[in-house]
């Protein structure tokens, strides 16, 4: 039940009640704060409240009886906007526009709140944009604006809409997906986008989407389906101070060797980098990691069997801290095992595969495949602490947006 507060009569204009308030329906991939603002000639306040259902009766007559005006909308400073320009530049910041205005030949003028937009992508050789919304709707339209306005780390910028190739809108804030060191994140929410730096995954085989932790997830059929992320500087985290690979898995079976993530060379080659698997080496439900060094030296660790279970969502993570040499495997926020390998540079300058191994085999016929679902797979350019790993797990367990 939702409880409302009314500004006391002696409050001055601009008084605020700071609470957390998110609006999310079950099929929406992102949670965006929604601000309720009540105004009257004598006072105003901003009320926010956490909720997980579609808006229902909030006793609005109570406020109307006191002559208060109620309005709502998405708070744009709670949204992170990444814009890729046609010249290859990238701009990241918060929007200074509450709405984007478009024109559709079928629907006419459209004023979309930024909080309803998931992504925009320009269509080749036209001035049209494909618009994906957080509710799953898709439409094609042209901007009815000449520019968009952003607040970035280097000031306010206003790129022309003609220069935009693609735009992603994601939550931002203390419990979002922009935590220190997060360089890539593939939620799997109905697309293959990396919501942090735009390194989209390339599906191989029949990768589909199914119910996930928040929204949808990647679904691998165990018969040739996996994701490939081409080698890029952003994901080459081994050269830095350390790294963390983490995400949510829901395996269908544990009776096969299953790669979660693996850096790899060309199909059929023997070149490999960091590897993170389940059910290999130690029996069904075990963990296996090999933090291969830049010189090709392996640094392997294998847990006992029976840790991972089938047909259940579980949070898994692998971290390596170069300064201490410590590698740690986590399951559901708890340390499974740790091992000190001393300090070295991990090899991560290769393609990254999610759900497959193509060493000594081919891209179309991998030697090993993950069967099940994977969601919110992230890469950090540092080793997360045990507390940070626990916070990611606990955030989702409590029904809150994953605290990446």
What does this structure look like?
This protein has helices at 60-65, 386-397; strands at 22-23, 32-39, 44-47, 69-74, 79-85, 90-95, 99-104, 108-113, 117-122, 129-133, 138-143, 150-152, 155-157, 164-171, 182-186, 202-204, 208-211, 216-221, 226-229, 242-251, 258-264, 272-278, 287-290, 300-302, 314-321, 326-331, 334-340, 351-354, 356-357, 368-369, 371-380. By secondary structure, it is mainly beta. The chain folds into three domains: 22-74, no CATH class; 77-171, no CATH class; 182-397, Jelly Rolls (Sandwich). The protein is globular, with a radius of gyration of 23 Å.
Question: What's this entry about, in short?
Answer:
With 404 residues, the protein is mostly beta strands. It has helices at 60-65, 386-397, and strands spanning 22-23, 32-39, 44-47, 69-74, 79-85, 90-95, 99-104, 108-113, 117-122, 129-133, 138-143, 150-152, 155-157, 164-171, 182-186, 202-204, 208-211, 216-221, 226-229, 242-251, 258-264, 272-278, 287-290, 300-302, 314-321, 326-331, 334-340, 351-354, 356-357, 368-369, 371-380.
